[in-house]
Design goal:
- The complex is a heterotrimer of chains A (181), B (320) and C (722).
- Chain A is of the alpha+beta class and 181 residues long.
- Chain A has helices spanning 2-8, 40-46, 103-110, 120-133, 139-145, 156-166, and strands at residues 19-25, 28-34, 66-69, 72-75, 88-90, 175-179.
- In chain A, a hairpin with a 2-residue loop joins β1 (19-25) and β2 (28-34).
- Among the domains of chain C are: 34-113 and 172-258, Aldehyde oxidase/xanthine dehydrogenase, molybdopterin binding domain (Aldehyde Oxidoreductase, domain 4), CATH 3.30.365.10; 375-417 and 550-697, Aldehyde oxidase/xanthine dehydrogenase, molybdopterin binding domain (Aldehyde Oxidoreductase, domain 4); 420-537, Aldehyde Oxidoreductase, domain 4 (2-Layer Sandwich), CATH 3.30.365.10.
- The chains are: A alpha+beta (181), B alpha+beta (320), C alpha+beta (722).
- At the A-C interface, α2, α3, α4, α5 and α6 of A face α1, α16 and β23 of C.
Amino acid sequence: MAQELNKHNAEKIQGPDAIPVQLTINGKAQAFQLEPRVTLLDALRNHSTQTGAKEVCDRATCGACTVLLDGVPVYACMLLAIEAQGREITTVEGLAPDGKLTKVQEEFIACDGLQCGYCTPGFVLTVSALLAKNPKPSETDVRKACSGNLCRCGSYPRVVEAALKAAGVATASKCEVLTNV
Amino acid sequence: MKAFEYVNAQTPESAAGLIGTEGRYLAGGIDLLGEMKEYIATPARLVNVKNLPTTREISKTPEGGFRLGANVTIAELAAQADLPAGLIEAAAEVGSPQIRAVATVGGNLAQHSRCWYYRQRDLTCLKRGGSTCYARDGENKYNAIFTGNPCISPVVSNLAVALTVLSAQAVVWRKSKEVRLTMAELYADAWNNPLAQNSLQPGDLILAVEIPAPVAGVRSSYLQVSEKSDFDWALVSCAAAGSVNEGKFRGVKIALGAVAPVPFQMEEANALLEGKPCNEASANAAASLILATATPFSHNGYKVPIARALIRRTLLNLAK
Amino acid sequence: MSEWPSDPKFLGKDTRRLEGPAKVTGAAKYSSDMQPEGWLYGMIFRSKWPAALIKSINLEKARAVPGIKGAVTVRDGERPVYFYGEELAAVAGTSKQACLDALRLIEVEATPQPFVVDPVEAMKPGAPSVFTDSPNLSEAKIKEEGKVDEAFAQCAVVVDGEFSTQVQLHHSLETHGNTIHVRAEDCTAWASTQGIFSVRDGLADQLKLPQSKVRAITEYMGGGFGSKFGPGVEGSLAARLSRETGLPVKIMLTRFDESLAVGNRPSSYQKIRLGSDKEGNLLAFDLDGFGSAGFSSGGRTAGGGGGAGFPAPYIYKVPNVRTKQAGVATNAGSSRAFRAPGHPQGSFGMESIMDELAVRLGMDPVDLRIKNDPFEIRRKEYAIGREKFGWAQKYKKPGSTPGPIKTGVGVAGATWGGGGKGTKAQVTINPDGAVEVRCGTQDLGTGIRTVIAVVAAEIFGLTPDKILVRIGDTDFPPSGGSGGSTTTPSVSPAIFDACTKGLQQLQTVSGVADARGVNFLPACRKLGVEPIVMQGEWREGLSSSGAGGVQFAEVAVDTETGFVKVTKILVVQDCGLVVNKLTAESQVNGGVIIGLGYALYEQRVMDPQTGVVLNPNFETYKLPGISDIPDIEVILLDMPERGVIGIGEPVVIPTASAVANAVANAIGVRIHSLPITPDKILEALDRVPKGATAGNEELDPAFARVERADGVAGDFVDFLPA
């Protein structure tokens, strides 16, 4: 599909004004009219209603805009929308289309792998992609996979816990409550 | 970003034709779009080169070496287990998983300065055509300790450092034909010329990188030290390649990154190691030779001991 | 004994966040996600000068850009600029691209002024003045108790040291901003704020609308850490652009903007002297300190503390104390409250010098702390923590690990006041058993929505998921801003009060003696058509203030590269009654991780030559990432008798101090400034070559192009364009 599009548009100069752009977002084809300079993140958030991917740094440093491109996590802020044509784009909204949460989503909630939640869509997608590729990751695998996602509230320890639990790897609680001290 | 035209090139020839005087080639886009968002680069046209034939493949050369297409992603490189270890290690330290998924071999080599004066949208430093290298008398902790010109921005490509010691060559489309540049040649201009990021001329396009056939017993190693554990630029990086026979260094090459506008190597240090026992003393001697000419600035003298440690560690890794 | 139930079902247990499903599916709509019909994208134009006199700003060309619907200046006419990034104007248009193009066409006529961004330089005579009418250096605040000089003369041991801390940025992931729709008669603002009522009141004042006609909504927000109160300049500009265009306008700051103009933790410089007798009883303390909160510091704010003050000698009881603190104005963005304002700075200086004293006394640093800490709970925490951490086995002579990778341990304590304050809440008990609680608080990410559900569920004997909680709307009963660890202690009692009254009313009306649990629905069914609506409010006795906490840190330092790896943090923290264990622990993790950033990575860097911020991004303003996080172990002390106490602030305070002490214990040399980066480690270990500092000599800019670093005239000139 992507190849065909490229052939079709080969050496045809497009822009700088808005041109038709077709994106396949969460399995549905959507038509846009965009300038070539519009990023995929901008297309999702400002030219559509899919605001799950967040704009935080807009410079490929934080991972809040992570989407899956043919199943692989990428930064939507550093990808031109025009270049995402013909690819399967999955945003966080597309993970549970029928309303039934995935195991990863369930464990993020159960382990409290989120606080303000602004980084959460990115982490959920990154972890989902990891487990699709590596169903039994080690703690180091999780950390490496999530090294491109920042959280400011400090949900990291519980993101790790959620990822491991979703993979069926046992983890111990790091917290105890002492009474009557 | 300033508005631009976009076009898909199908051949190197047409890409070079389409780029004109105000165009830029677009591969993974991580570096280029970053510059464009800060208006450091304002190209009138982006020529997508990701569809050029064979540039997404890793293949064997007739001589038994590797040919890495310029559009091979860093993630693909890092996952290619039969490549030299030093190259895989260097690839694994590039950016984050999301960056490695789209960033390319060619883009990594051709990426521009990360000096924070260069990247500051409201400054015009020497490298951007201004009159002053602010880093010299300013906040230069991340800058070079070797340079041949008034700009002290260091090269930050991990791959360049690893490929240097592997004697790799960049295959560059230049004026309608392929030319081959060693890593030293690919960056030579940046040593002398403050405006240069590398030796590529307008319209030049990296098509591939070729690594000579591996020689039995030759190993390679890449290490870097950053401030953070992951997803951080190297303060100093170091790569070494060569063999250790009967406890002695043979044919060893060593290069440093993030300390000079070019992958920094010194033939004398490579020569010094020849036939020397593989131990800390030899490694330290090489490090001393390489670092003797360092001229640190007010805030980056600490790069010298880091470089010393990394030279020793990468060299000793060759025996592992 | 407090009124809280003694044998709770949900209080203190793990309750999942009610909004979890919304947040993991992207269904949660933040203020930055709002897309009201016809909304416009807005962006702010900022000063490129660190100091300037603006003569005029011309927006005509910007207005002419296709898609641009409105443009405003912050102030008309001549005006000064005090820092790089100060807001000058804003535009609104139908796309981000239109705004970007418009910003580049705004024309400013300005006269650059002399500036100073380094606080030490700003204090020197002859330094450029940030304000024309007042000195950069404020008058010092001097405090003296006891007879300090005499006491020092009697000390068996006196240690001294100079310490400094960096400017830290809040960097909430959701930037500051609002989506605002101003209509002729009223206004709706979807705000990313810690205080919805502060936004409402600020906008009402600006727009000259009755407060009842302005509605601020914050259903979800992406972090604030103390920096998000009131509409801010960005809110004010969005409101003006909305009024001008008649359309909703969204202005969310960019990360670049966020790095310049919306607050920070001010720097500190501390010269400390501390003395004790030979048993380690502290006798005398002397501090000469200053800091810079940017352009809001300095002479103009004398008497107000200059925004850069910090507590000293922090948590310790010292009979003879002298402190002198001043603020220095610089041409830099102003500070704002940042999670435990003042405390991390005060803690770093004091806890560092305490460890110096312990080493000089040959005393265990934990013992020294217990001996001099007046707060009983914290003394217990040290005892619990040292056992759990294995302190006795791990603490050793500084720098004594063999080999290049050296390990060390450190400890530090903290305090925070907090406490509850006026909050109102309303509970509705419907005849079908549906319960709805409304409260005009807001959730920064701490989990207050779930706390409300837990409290209500506890009282009604229902499960928390049966409670519909509605917050983040100024149409609901008022609550204060979420700052100073006050939210849970303010809100929980109001919910308790409303629900307790609601339950009583339900029992009265229904005639069911105990309408809780299984009896709840049958009781509701007896209500007929009229629901019970009951107001409640915060009152004394259910919450308190004054939390103590201690943290232990273990580190490994590579003495050849200067790389520091924190391997373990143990937190022992008191927060009174634990309401929701799950979210309380998350807040502890969060505090530790921001503290870790303060310890090792984060620092706003400004260029003294040009006055700009050099790292207005996450590439070189380094936030801790997931691989930087140590094993964090949390022990909460549950003390229901104290009532509810906030936990947000105290847990951020001691981390950097404990890490710094651990680093000193590992390498045998102390790093006196934060963040502790490899360059400082190698410098402290005397591994950096001296003398070779090519950057220090004067280099004539005109000469720069023909001068090589080694002094040899280069041939590179040929490569330069004409």
